[in-house]
Each structure stands twice: as structure tokens, then as C-alpha cells.
């Protein structure tokens, strides 16, 4: 139920552990069973504690649950409750009171029984009082503690701020989870280790995005292994000899710039002319030479200068005037030869600076003609406005520039100075925390509407897990966001960034993280592998996305006639005719539909070697209906070895029912879990469990019967208010970043009323949440600065 | 041969950490040079979850003449360096009125002796842990005040244990009652944290100065921001502030300390190994390396988070650890629990062997250590928090007489043991959590 109530719990815990379980059970059983009972009493005026409950308590309860000489007579003291509000604040205690009254456990048998009508009347009155939170008064909207960006939010915000997808938070410590979610302000903490990571991440990201344009340094490049044109000569040891009109050379990647080419040659002179050679670039002659050398001992260096673009170039030496003497034979060769010993290129000189990436240009854009420090000012102003998600004052920018100045004094280049300044922005609390400021002069407990910019942040982190985009930001700057709230929400849900909502909210709501950790035993489930695991996860994610994007009814979560599969998953489900690894939408077979029969959920609620109906039942109660069973008592009594029945899993677990201590909780969990026994520990369909036939029928504590998963789903869909309430509470928790308190019931009720009117459409849930008081407002502390 | 490894070299290296047994000449200068000054003492706390099968853990006899029971057999090579302590308890892990949640309470109370506040989100609270008491007093003598290691990274979604936040099960170390210190599980990241900031060339010094200027600047931001916030927001900013100051202190400290010299052949690790045994060994190697190079003297390490349901196929156990510890006295489950307990002791023996193989002064590194190993749950089915499995390895620089089995008085808080260790570290404190005095009889 998501409501905190430490005091009530502590009191209840002091009761005998057996009785305790029945008590806590009360709330859930009451709600599960209660669809038919009238919600409000038939009183002309709503019941009040003082008028309609207190007299009963005085007559029948205070004898034990009151005080004597100022001391409590029993662990639970009811005499301290004076009015409606005190009851509403201690919801858990009063849920238990209701249960004890309903089951007849209290007042105890030894005491005088209250007259029949009185018992019913007081039960109705207590329910009425608890439901009677006066939502017409000024709302109590709570106060979220300032929220640090969590890992996903940090990754996405960096992506949108700098234009690159780095996932720098991959090596951050995991965020702590509270109320089922990892974005709860109170729970997220900062430790030295985390801050170290922030610093390292900021430095490394900025190093990648802002590159100091360093001109390439000139160096000597010796071409390795010269190649000689075919038939025009031969390759010698690292060099070449030409006797025909060919070329000896090779290819080399060169950065743009000027290069000097040095070719070491010598020649065998034959005939009247001297040997003539040319230095060629990409087979075009750059310069021609006369080679005067006539032996190996007379190496001559030919030199030419070229300018190249960045790329692979062919550099070579060509023989211009081959000549074969008339008396030349192969045995006694007599012809002109050009020996090319080596080709060395040195450079580049005067190379142009490498072009900056588009990102860098965008980040460092500034008006023309500015001095570096003023350009920095412009850049930092723009960057920090986006990073801090609000306009920055001139003196803030000036303070940030101090770091730029220090870098300059240390001899850092312009780009390096900017890196440091932007790094400082990325580790500032204004970036890492989503700050919300009380208006100046606010009194303690005064509620106020948060600013448009603060609302823009809440909205974008809610639906996109990232910073507001330009459209949201500009609307908020101009004070127009609230006016356009609904259109913006619709836009955001349709935008592909809403997949973050599906992953983060959906994944945590459905505890999909556990799917990554399950280890089905390879002997029992040899067909399970990581491909299947990934396919299961994808199906559920695509299913959720579909409901969000197509704005379907939330009841589709419970039951739907479509899903998404690829070949692997289809085979697992026994569906024919699906080929290929991509996912596509299909109509579900008769025995599947909705989350409860998806392999992901069925697998993560199983044990490594078998199904666990208890886990499945508990999961459904906890995650879908918001009525978790209480934890098992600390001393679960040992089961008499001799009395363990043999047989099917169902029969073995009958023990849970036989023993009344266990039955109270297990009567709620087991039947639900057993409804899905036809799906094995990795969600595949089966007719039998080992040798035993499967009986998926069951009965809920309120008497409703079902004959299998479809029947159970029908019952669950009838409990749509319960499901809607649970989902709403979770979405509100996620959207606000705090656990819900008793006063949030007003907001939840309003959202549910709107859902009922709108066919339970998903977008209604989001729109109403965004419009709700807790989302739009905050409570001031009124502390003096 | 002494090697000063530049940051670039360190970061370019691949392969697992191979810290060879150091020659006398390779010891950090401050340890080697001053023969008159004793080597510093180190402390570590190793945690295993879900209790142990005490029937196969507790030796029959007390004193020095005892036989190692089945689970402790792997300690045979280091039997003389280990002390078995029977009878310690951890009262704050008990419900004390709070109902279910023994696992969360156990890991939270192990080093703090404080009762965890029962909450799934807001306002979690434990106490200061013993290792952090030492870190506060001694942390400025080393590059890293303390190191928190773990094996399991994922936090788990939903409620972790019966209404207790997941925070409690994932770490032993608490800086203060509201700041748990997250564990690091990636050996590569740990290695970089320990060793990448350790030379003093001008480029490195400039980088540090520039970093310091950034830190000064954001401290300013945080101070002025804090003034405009109220209530719980202030506490969050405080956490931020103390984290930044911590890094600043560390940078300044690093400048005054001599550079770290890694033993020859040390290589930077690859990504975390998939195999659990390899992972545990690698972490043990890093612990030994950290102590050997004196980058830190205080380490906590959870072999698994409390309540862990990991399976141990290498020990023949396919089922989840936590699941089978609700054994209801079934013999086949007890045998599996024993197998897991023994496996953990094998890994502990590896660590001790590693520390023992490194010469230091007249003996070994292990002689100057105090390594506590144990759990705050006795029997996993009963969830009792007395008769805890506890070992103490290492002679604490000559102040602990190991090689025996000692039974302490009933209901002696385990925090008394921590006080004894803190005293020997030079970080004595009068009281911590539910301690009732310094545990006597260790020396």
C-alpha cells in the first residue's frame, strides 16, 4: 500500500507473532474481499471517530486496550486515538483492527459480545472514517528531498547535453533503491567514491568531445619495400632496379601538408645520354633529374617538395630513358640501369589543423571577433544554462570563469581551459542535483506551486529520464508550460525518448532486473540460454511500449490479445510460422495474453529447478495489486518430516493450508500462483508437471472461484480499481521521487476517478499525475536562510 | 629491480594482476628503510552471508591442541596464523521488536553494533562501522583511507528484506549512521583507484592543481546552495560536501606521500572474470597488493551480499544459497550448506596464503595483519545472532596469539572484538555500538 507508518507497525509487532500475522493481513484481505460491501455507510452524514467509533471502543475494547494509571495495559493501545485524523495517520493499525472485528477474533470470546447490529455499524464507521480524508481542505502535498541524478539520468543528460552517447555511468556504484525505485530523493546518497567517479567521468567525456587541434609533427618516413612496375625492373633488398620505363615506389598514408621527398639513387651509365629519373607523386611527375652517379659508391640524392591532401599517396622514382645496347644479352647484360636505394619522406610542414567534430563546433560556437575569454564567457553561459536547467546569473558565470583563468595561468591552451571550466560545471551540485527552491519568505508548512522551470525538469525526468529539451525549456522560460501541459505530455509520450520511461519505470515496477540474475538449472531447463533470456525481456519491454505509445487501457497489462515475439520466443511459446530474430507484433495464442503469462514474469518468479506458486502469488499481490502479504514470522515452525505429503507440488504445498498459522497468508498467495502451474519455471506451457497432472483452478479468500489463468485474469480485471490504485501509487512514487504518505490518498483518488471516466487510458494516468497537487506543488520548510 | 611505473604504462597493461612475492628490496621505502620502525598494522573484515553450519565449524576442543572441523579444513596450511573465536553475538541484528528482516539487520550491525532503522526508503540509518572509525583516525597516513570491496553489483529491485532498504545488505562500511559506503566489484576499477594517481612528475602535479581548483569552486557552489535549502535537502548537500572534501584531502595527502612502487610483474586486470573463484582470487590479490604497497591499511570485503541467493555449482550446489539455508534440518540441505561454507573458507585460505607469501620485516605481511572473517548470522534457518562463526587471522604485529580456539563468555558482543582490533591499530575508542569493553585474551 506504500504508506509509511512506523509507529503503528512497531506497536503491532509487539503482539504475539501469531496474532500479528492475522492483523496485518486484515488490510489486504479486507480490500480483496470488499468489492461488494458498500464503501460508505448509509448515514446521512459521514461517520466521525468521536461520534460513531469511540463509544464502541469504550464499551468493548478499552478494558484491555486502554490505560490504567497512565500505563498501557496491552501492547496495542486504542485509547490514545482522539479524532479522525489520528486514525487516518495510523492506517496499518486500524486495518488490523478492522480485520480482527470482521473475523470475530476481537472482542475475544470471553468478553460480552456486542449486539449484532453494533458490530456491523462500527466496522462501517471505521471504514468511513479512514476513507474520509478531507480532500477539500488545502492539500498536503508533501516535500521531495532534493534528488541527485541517478545513473540512467546522468547518462541520458550527458547524452543530450553534449550530443554523444558515452554511458559514462557504467562504472558508477549502483544507486540505492527505495519503495521499489532507484530515483527516490531521500535514498540517493553521495559518497566520496561516487564523487570520484563524477570527476573522472566529466574529465574523460570532455577530453573526448573537445579535442585540442594539434598539428601533426614532422617526422621522417622511410618507404618500406619498394615495388617495381612489372617487367620494368626487379626488387632488390628493400629497394629496386629499373631497366625499363617503370617506377619503383610504394604507397603511404600522409596527413595533409608539405613534404620533402629524398630518393637515393645510383646508375649504370650506358650509351651517350646520362640516366634521367623523375620523382613522381601518384604517378605524376613532380621533377626530373639527370643522374650523374655511375656506381654504387656514388649515391646521389634526388630531392623534391610536394604538398598533399590527407590520404594515401604513391611516391616513386621513375626511369625516363632506358637504353639497351646492341650487344646486350641476358648472359652479358649491357643496358642503362637506375638503382633506387631508398625513398624517404619528411614532413608534414605547414599542415592545416585537423577539423573539429560537429559536436565540438556546436559546443564551442561563439560570436565572431571575440577575445578568447569573452568567447569562453559566451560558451559557458550557454552551457551552464542548459546544464543547470535554469538561467544563470552573470556573477555565476564570472565565478566559473575563475577556473578558466587558473588554467590559463598554468599554461593550458584555449580548448584545455574550456574543458576545465565545463568540467567544473559538470561536477557542480547545480548539475548533479535537481534543485527546487522554496519561494523567499515562505512560512513553515506553506504549500506553493513550483516554478515553471522546476516543473519542466520534473516532467522531463519523469517521462524521459533526462533534461528538458529546447521546446520544454523555452516554454517554461516564457511561463507557458502549464498552459500547454497536456499537449506537451502527449508529445513526450510519443517521442522515442519515452522508452526511458518504459525501461526505468516499467522495468522496476515489474522487477525485470531479476530476470538478468535468474539461473535456471541446466538439467531441468536445457533450452534456456541468454538469447532466450534477452528475448523474454524484449517482449515485455515492447509490450509496455505499445501500451504507452498507443495509449491503450491499462487493463491490457492484465490481459491483452497481442504481444511481440521473435523466432526464438515464438518457438518457446509453441507458436508456428515466426522466422527471424527481429520482433514483430502477433495475436496471442488462446492460453496467453497480458503480463502474467509472459515468460519474463513467469521466469523471474520461479526457482532454479521448479516453479514457485508462492513467489508468483506474492509477486502479483505485491506488484500488481499493491496488497503484499506480510513477511513470514521470524520463527517459521519446523515442518514435521513425517507428515510431508507426497505427490504433486500442489499436494505438497497443501501443508500451507493445513497448518492454520501458515494458512492465513498462504491462502492468499498459493491459489493465485497455482493458477499458472501450466507454465513451467521458464514460462513454457506444459500439460503435466513431472508425472503429475496440473490443476490450475483455485479459490480466493473472498470465495471467488476460477478454473485457470483466464478465469483468474477475469477476476483480476474486475478488481480494476484495486489494480489502478496500485499502479497509480507506483507511478506517483516514481514521478515524485518520494514514498507516498497518507495524505497522498486525495491525489490518488482523483487520478483514479479520472481513469474511470476515461476508460483507464494510459495517457490519462500520466496527465492526471502531472496535474496532481503533489506533482505541481511543494511544501516549504520555512527555515530561515 | 625497482620499477617506477608511469600512469600510461600502468593503463596500457593487460592481463590479471600477478603480484609476485616481493623481494625484500621491493618493499615500499618507508617500510624497508626504517628498520627501527615496525611495519604498519593492517586490518580487514571479510563477510559471508546466511550464517554457517556451526556443527561442522566449531572445534570440539579449546586451546592450541584442537582439530580443524570439516568446514575449516582448507585452513590447514595457515592453522597457526588463525584464531577461532566461539560464542560471540550480535544483538543489534536481532529483531528487538522490529519483526522480520534478519538479513538486512545482520550485515548492517556486523561492524556497527547498531540496530538498523526499519525503512524501505526514507531515512535509512545504521551506525558508524569499526573500519571507518579506524579510517577517520588513520586515513590521512595512506593514499586511500579505506577500501570497500564486494562481489555482487546489482542492488535488486523492490523491497530487499521484509521492509528494509536494499542499502543494508550491500555493504559493511558506514561512514556515519546515514552514509553507507558502496562496494566496488570491478577489479580493473579498483586497480586504477589504487594505483593510477601515484607519480609526482610535473604534468601530474599540474593536473592535481587544476583538479583542486575545480573542487574548490564546486565547494563554493555547494556552500552557497546549501544556504538556500532547508530540511532534508541540507543533509543531501552535506553528503556532497563531505565527499568533495574527501577527494580534496586525498589529493593533498597524495602530494605529501612517497610514490607507490608496484612489485615487478604487476599487471592491470581485465574485466571482472565470469568465474566466481577467479573473481574472488583476483580481489584477494588486489587486497594483498594494496596492503603490500601501503596504499591503504583498512579493507572490508563481502564475499556475497547478506541474503545472497547465489548458487555455487563449483561446490556442487545448484540451488540458491539463501534458499537452502532454510534447511529445516534436512540432511541433504545441511550438506550443501557445508559445501558452500567450505568453499568460502577455501577462498579465505587463498587470501591468507597470499598475505603469508609476502615477506615483511622479520616475518610476513600476514604477521602484521588482523583479518576478521565471519557472519552476523549463526544458523541460517534459525536466524539466530549468537554463536557466530568468527575467525581472526594474522598476528597484528605481534599482539595476537594465533593458532588456537577460544570460547568467549556467552553474549559477548562482537563489537568487543572490533574494539580490540582498533586498539591495536592505534585507533582505540572507548565504545562502539553495543560494545561492553575491549575483548581480552587475544594477546
Description:
In chain A, 42% of the residues lie in helices and 14% in strands. Chain A has 785 residues and is α+β, with helices and mostly antiparallel strands. In chain A, strands 4, 6, 7, 9, 12 and 14 form a 6-stranded antiparallel β-sheet that branches. The longest helix of chain A has 20 residues, at 530-549. The radius of gyration of chain A is 39 Å and the shape is elongated. In chain A, 43% of the residues are buried. Residues 1-43 of chain A have low confidence and may be disordered. Chain B is α/β, with parallel strands linked by helices and 443 residues long. Chain B is built from 11 helices and 11 strands. Chain B has helices spanning 7-12, 29-32, 102-110, 130-138, 187-195, 202-228, 232-256, 276-292, 321-325, 331-356, 414-425; strands spanning 42-47, 82-89, 147-150, 174-176, 179-180, 298-302, 359-360, 363-364, 369-374, 390-393, 404-413. In chain B, strands 3-6-1-9-10-2-11 form a 7-stranded mixed β-sheet, with helices on both faces. A two-stranded antiparallel sheet of chain B has the order 4-5. A two-stranded antiparallel ribbon of chain B has the order 7-8. In chain B, a hairpin with a 2-residue loop joins β4 and β5 (179-180). The longest helix of chain B has 27 residues, at 202-228. Chain B is globular and about 60 Å long. The two termini of chain B are 38 Å apart. The chains are: A alpha+beta (785), B alpha/beta (443).
Amino acid at each position: 500500500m506504500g504508506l509509511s507508518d512506523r509507529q503503528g507497525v512497531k506497536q503491532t509487532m509487539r503482539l504475539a507473532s501469531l496474532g500479528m500475522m492475522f492483523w496485518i493481513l486484515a488490510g489486504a484481505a479486507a480490500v480483496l474481499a470488499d468489492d461488494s460491501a458498500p464503501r460508505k455507510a448509509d448515514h446521512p452524514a459521514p461517520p466521525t471517530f468521536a461520534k460513531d467509533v469511540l463509544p464502541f471502543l469504550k464499551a468493548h475494547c478499552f478494558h484491555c486496550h486502554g490505560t490504567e494509571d497512565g500505563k498501557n495495559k496491552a501492547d496495542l493501545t486504542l485509547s490514545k486515538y482522539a479524532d479522525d485524523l489520528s486514525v487516518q495517520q495510523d492506517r496499518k493499525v486500524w486495518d488490523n483492527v478492522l480485520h480482527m472485528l470482521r473475523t470475530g477474533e476481537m472482542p475475544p470470546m470471553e468478553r460480552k459480545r456486542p449486539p449484532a447490529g453494533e458490530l456491523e455499524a462500527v466496522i462501517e464507521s471505521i471504514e468511513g472514517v479512514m476513507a474520509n480524508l478531507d480532500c477539500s481542505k488545502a492539500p498536503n502535498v508533501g516535500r521531495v528531498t532534493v534528488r541527485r541524478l541517478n545513473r540512467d539520468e546522468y547518462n541520458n543528460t550527458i547524452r543530450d547535453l553534449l550530443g554523444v552517447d558515452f554511458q559514462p555511468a557504467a562504472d558508477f556504484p549502483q544507486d540505492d533503491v527505495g519503495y521499489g525505485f532507484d530515483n527516490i530523493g531521500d535514498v540517493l546518497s553521495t559518497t566520496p567514491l561516487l564523487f570520484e567517479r563524477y570527476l573522472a567521468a566529466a574529465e574523460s567525456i570532455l577530453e573526448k568531445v573537445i579535442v585540442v587541434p594539434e598539428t601533426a609533427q614532422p617526422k621522417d618516413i622511410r618507404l618500406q619495400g619498394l615495388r617495381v612496375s612489372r617487367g620494368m625492373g626487379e626488387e632488390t633488398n628493400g629497394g629496386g632496379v629499373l631497366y625499363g620505363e617503370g617506377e619503383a615506389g610504394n604507397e603511404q598514408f600522409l596527413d595533409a601538408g608539405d613534404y620533402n621527398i629524398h630518393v637515393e639513387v645510383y646508375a649504370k651509365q650506358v650509351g651517350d645520354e646520362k640516366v634521367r629519373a623523375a620523382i613522381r607523386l601518384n604517378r605524376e611527375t613532380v621533377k626530373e633529374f639527370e643522374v650523374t652517379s655511375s656506381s654504387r659508391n656514388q649515391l646521389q640524392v634526388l630531392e623534391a617538395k610536394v604538398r598533399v591532401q590527407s590520404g594515401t599517396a604513391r611516391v616513386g622514382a621513375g626511369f625516363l630513358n632506358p637504353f639497351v645496347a646492341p650487344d646486350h644479352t641476358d648472359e652479358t647484360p649491357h643496358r642503362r640501369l637506375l638503382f633506387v636505394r631508398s625513398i624517404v619522406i619528411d614532413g608534414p610542414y605547414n599542415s592545416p589543423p585537423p577539423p573539429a567534430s560537429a559536436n565540438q563546433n556546436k559546443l564551442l560556437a561563439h560570436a565572431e571577433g571575440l577575445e578568447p575569454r569573452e568567447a569562453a564567457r559566451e560558451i559557458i553561459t550557454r552551457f551552464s544554462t542548459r546544464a543547470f536547467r535554469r538561467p544563470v546569473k552573470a556573477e555565476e558565470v564570472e565565478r566559473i570563469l575563475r577556473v578558466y583563468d587558473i588554467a590559463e595561468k598554468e599554461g593550458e591552451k584555449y580548448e584545455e581551459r574550456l574543458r576545465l571550466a565545463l568540467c567544473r560545471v559538470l561536477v557542480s551540485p547545480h548539475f548533479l542535483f535537481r534543485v527546487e527552491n522554496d519561494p523567499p519568505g515562505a512560512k513553515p508548512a506553506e504549500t506553493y506551486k513550483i516554478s515553471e522551470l522546476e516543473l519542466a525538469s520534473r516532467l522531463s525526468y519523469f517521462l524521459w529520464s533526462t533534461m528538458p529539451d529546447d521546446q520544454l525549456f523555452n516554454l517554461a522560460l516564457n511561463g507557458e508550460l502549464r498552459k500547454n501541459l497536456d499537449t506537451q505530455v502527449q508529445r513526450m509520450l510519443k517521442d522515442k525518448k519515452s522508452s526511458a520511461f518504459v525501461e526505468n519505470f516499467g522495468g522496476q515496477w515489474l522487477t525485470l532486473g531479476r530476470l538478468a540474475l535468474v539461473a535456471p538449472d541446466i538439467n531441468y531447463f536445457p533450452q534456456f540460454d541468454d538469447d532466450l533470456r534477452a528475448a523474454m525481456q524484449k517482449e515485455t519491454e515492447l509490450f509496455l511500449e505499445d501500451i504507452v505509445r498507443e495509449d491503450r487501457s491499462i487493463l491490457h497489462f492484465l490481459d491483452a490479445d497481442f504481444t511481440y515475439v521473435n523466432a526464438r520466443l515464438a518457438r518457446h511459446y509453441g507458436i508456428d510460422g515466426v522466422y527471424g530474430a527481429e520482433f514483430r507484433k502477433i495475436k496471442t495464442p488462446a492460453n496467453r495474453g497480458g503480463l502474467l503469462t509472459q515468460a519474463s514474469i513467469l521466469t523471474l518468479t520461479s526457482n532454479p529447478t521448479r516453479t514457485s506458486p508462492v513467489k508468483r502469488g506474492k509477486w502479483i499481490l505485491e506488484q500488481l495489486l499493491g496488497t503484499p502479504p506480510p513477511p513470514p514470522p521470524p520463527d517459521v515452525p519446523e515442518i514435521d518430516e513425517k507428515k510431508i505429503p507426497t505427490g504433486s507440488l500442489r499436494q505438497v504445498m497443501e501443508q500451507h493450508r493445513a497448518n492454520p498459522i501458515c494458512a492465513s497468508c498462504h491462502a492468499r498467495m498459493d491459489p493465485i500462483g497455482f493458477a499458472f502451474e501450466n507454465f513451467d519455471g521458464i514460462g513454457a506451457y506444459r500439460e503435466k508437471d513431472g508425472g503429475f497432472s496440473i490443476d490450475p483452478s483455485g479459490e480466493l479468500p473472498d470465495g471467488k472461484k476460477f478454473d485457470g489463468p483466464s478465469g483468474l485474469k477475469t477476476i483480476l480485471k474486475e478488481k480494476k480499481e484495486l489494480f489502478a490504485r496500485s499502479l497509480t501509487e507506483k507511478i506517483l512514487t516514481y514521478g515524485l521521487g518520494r514514498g507516498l504518505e497518507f495524505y497522498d490518498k486525495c491525489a490518488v483518488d482523483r487520478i483514479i476517478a479520472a481513469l474511470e471516466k476515461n476508460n483507464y487510458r494510459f495517457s490519462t494516468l500520466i496527465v492526471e499525475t502531472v496535474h496532481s497537487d503533489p506533482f505541481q506543488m511543494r511544501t516549504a520548510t520555512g527555515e530561515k536562510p | 629491480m625497482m620499477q617506477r611505473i608511469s600512469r600510461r604504462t600502468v593503463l596500457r597493461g593487460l592481463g590479471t594482476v600477478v603480484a609476485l612475492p616481493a623481494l625484500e628490496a621491493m618493499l615500499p621505502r618507508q617500510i624497508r628503510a626504517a628498520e627501527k620502525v615496525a611495519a604498519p598494522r593492517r586490518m580487514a573484515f571479510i563477510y559471508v552471508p546466511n550464517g554457517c553450519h556451526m556443527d561442522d565449524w566449531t572445534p570440539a576442543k579449546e586451546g592450541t591442541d584442537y582439530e580443524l572441523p570439516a568446514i575449516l579444513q582448507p585452513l590447514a596450511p595457515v592453522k597457526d596464523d588463525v584464531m577461532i573465536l566461539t560464542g560471540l553475538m550480535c544483538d543489534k541484528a536481532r529483531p528487538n521488536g522490529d519483526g522480520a528482516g534478519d538479513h538486512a539487520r545482520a550485515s548492517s550491525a556486523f561492524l556497527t553494533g547498531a540496530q538498523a532503522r526499519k525503512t524501505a526508503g526514507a531515512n535509512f540509518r545504521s551506525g558508524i562501522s569499526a573500519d571507518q572509525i579506524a579510517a577517520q583516525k588513520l586515513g590521512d597516513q595512506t593514499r586511500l583511507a579505506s577500501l570497500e570491496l564486494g562481489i555482487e553489483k546489482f542492488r535488486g529491485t523492490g523491497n530487499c528484506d521484509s521492509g528494509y532498504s536494499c542499502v543494508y545488505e550491500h555493504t559493511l562500511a558506514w561512514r556515519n549512521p546515514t552514509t553507507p559506503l558502496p562496494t566496488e566489484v570491478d577489479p580493473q576499477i579498483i586497480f586504477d583507484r589504487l594505483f593510477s594517481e601515484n607519480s609526482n612528475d610535473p604534468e601530474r602535479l599540474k593536473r592535481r592543481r587544476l583538479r583542486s581548483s575545480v573542487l574548490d569552486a564546486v565547494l563554493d557552489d555547494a556552500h552557497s546552495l546549501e544556504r538556500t535549502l532547508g530540511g532534508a535537502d541540507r543533509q543531501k548537500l552535506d553528503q556532497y560536501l563531505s565527499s568533495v572534501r574527501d577527494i580534496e584531502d586525498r589529493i593533498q595527502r597524495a602530494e605529501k606521500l612517497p610514490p607507490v612502487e608496484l612489485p615487478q610483474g604487476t599487471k592491470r586486470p581485465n574485466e571482472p572474470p565470469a568465474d566466481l573463484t577467479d573473481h574472488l582470487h583476483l580481489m584477494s590479490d588486489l587486497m594483498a597488493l594494496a596492503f603490500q604497497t601501503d596504499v591503504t591499511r583498512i579493507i572490508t570485503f563481502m564475499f556475497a551480499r547478506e541474503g545472497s541467493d547465489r548458487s555455487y555449482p563449483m561446490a556442487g550446489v545448484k540451488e540458491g544459497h539463501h534458499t537452502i539455508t532454510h534447511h529445516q534440518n534436512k540432511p541433504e540441505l545441511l550438506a550443501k550448506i557445508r559445501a558452500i561454507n567450505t568453499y568460502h573458507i577455501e577462498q579465505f585460505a587463498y587470501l591468507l596464503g597470499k598475505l603469508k607469501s609476502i615477506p615483511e620485516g622479520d616475518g610476513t605481511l600476514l604477521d602484521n595483519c588482523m583479518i576478521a572473517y565471519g557472519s552476523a548470522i549463526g544458523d541460517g534457518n534459525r536466524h539466530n545472532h549468537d554463536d557466530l562463526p568468527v575467525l581472526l587471522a594474522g598476528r597484528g604485529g605481534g599482539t595476537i596469539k594465533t593458532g588456537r580456539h577460544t570460547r568467549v563468555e556467552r553474549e559477548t558482543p562482537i563489537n568487543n572484538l572490533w574494539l580490540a582490533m582498533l586498539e591495536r591499530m592505534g585507533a582505540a575508542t572507548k565504545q562502539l555500538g553495543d560494545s561492553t569493553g575491549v575483548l581480552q585474551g587475544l594477546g
